Amino acid sequence: MQTLANWDGGPGPWILFFPMIWAAVVIGVVTLLRRTVWRGRRGPWAGDLRPSGDSPLAVLGRRFASGEIDEDEYWRRLSVLDEQFGRKGGA
Predict the structure, then answer these.
(1) Which residues contact 75 (CB under 8 A, 6 or more apart)?
(2) Is the sign of the CA dihedral 50, 55, 58, 61 positive or negative?
(3) How many CA atoms lie within 13 A of 59 on its CB side?
(4) What global pTM score does this model have?
(5) Distance (Å, whole) CA 72 – CA 64
(6) For a Cys staple, 74 with which of 6, 12, 22, 64, CB 3.0–4.6 Å?
(7) What is the rounded CA–CA span in Å between residue 15 and residue 2?
(8) pLDDT tens digits, 21-74
(9) What letter would DSSP give residue 56?
């Protein structure tokens, strides 16, 4: 009977080396994806539609939320901003 300890024509202990290589490759690929592609979803190429910072849409939204302007004024100004600048996503 041949066992892993018998090196005469059998695979020997090297048979355990190949699954460890594949495990290292899989762990490496997952780590690489987590550090680059999956984390990059928050980047500019991800199509983030929420206005941020001091963009005109963000200022208009904050003014509407705080009650400085009413709903009619909000929609009127939003349509002007859409005509001049356009929004990502085209809604």
Answers:
(1) none
(2) negative
(3) 5
(4) 0.38
(5) 10
(6) 64
(7) 13
(8) 999 999 999 998 888 876 655 554 455 555 556 788 888 889 999 999 999 999
(9) H
Locate all alpha helices (DSSP H) within the chain, ordered by sequence. 17-35, 56-66, 71-84
One-letter amino acid of 3: T
* Weakest-pLDDT range from 9-13, 56-60, 63-67, 84-88: 84-88
Encoded amino acid at 64, one letter: F
Give the whole-angstrom CA distance, residue 34 versus residue 36.
6
- Rounded Cα–Cα distance for residues 19 and 25 (Å): 10
Please give the DSSP secondary-structure letter assigned to residue 41.
G
CB-based burial label for 69 (10 Å; 0-12, 13-18, 19+): middle
